[in-house]
Amino acid sequence: MSADNQTPEKNIVRLTGRLVLRTFGQRSKSEHLGVYLVCDQKEYLIRPAGANPFMNNPLMKLAGKTITAEGYIVDYVFLARSWAEEDSSPDTTI
């Protein structure tokens, strides 16, 4: 089941946190370097909504920076529809 198949428009949330690179699925066939959004209360694997989960994540280049992202949560994945670096003006929208 793909997380992208569930697009609950009414459940759109806005989160602010720091992007961190960590190993996902350690010691499994799915092991890879993942991008996590680390917020005050929780952390989520993050990727752009509609993006192929097996391709490079464009958010990887923002690792270490704080962003505000808008999207929806499916299990442990935050599917970002848009995001912006904190203290920067331009938005990046998919």
Short structural summary:
The protein is mostly beta strands and 94 residues long. The protein is built from no helices and 6 strands. A 5-stranded mixed beta barrel has the order 1-2-3-5-4.
Overview of the structural elements:
The structure is a single chain. With 94 residues, the chain is mainly beta. The protein has one domain: OB fold (Dihydrolipoamide Acetyltransferase, E2P) (Beta Barrel). Helix content is 0%, strand content 48%. The chain contains no helices and 6 strands. It has a 5-stranded mixed β-barrel with strand order 1-2-3-5-4. Strand 2 and strand 3 form a beta hairpin. The protein is globular. The relative contact order is 0.25.
Count of individual helical segments: 0
Strand order of the largest sheet: 1-2-3-5-4
Report the biggest beta sheet as strand number plus sense, adding barrel if it closes.
Answer: 5 strands, mixed, barrel
The best one-word shape is globular
Percent of residues in beta strands = over 45%
Helix/strand-derived category reads mainly beta
Helix content range? under 10%
In whole angstroms, how far apart are the ends?
Answer: 22 Å
Count of discrete domains: 1
Written as H for each helix and E for each strand, in order along the chain, the element string is EEEEEE
**In the CATH classification, which architecture applies?**
Beta Barrel
Cα gyration radius (Å): 13 Å
**What's the CATH topology label?**
OB fold (Dihydrolipoamide Acetyltransferase, E2P)
Q: Tally of extended strands?
A: 6
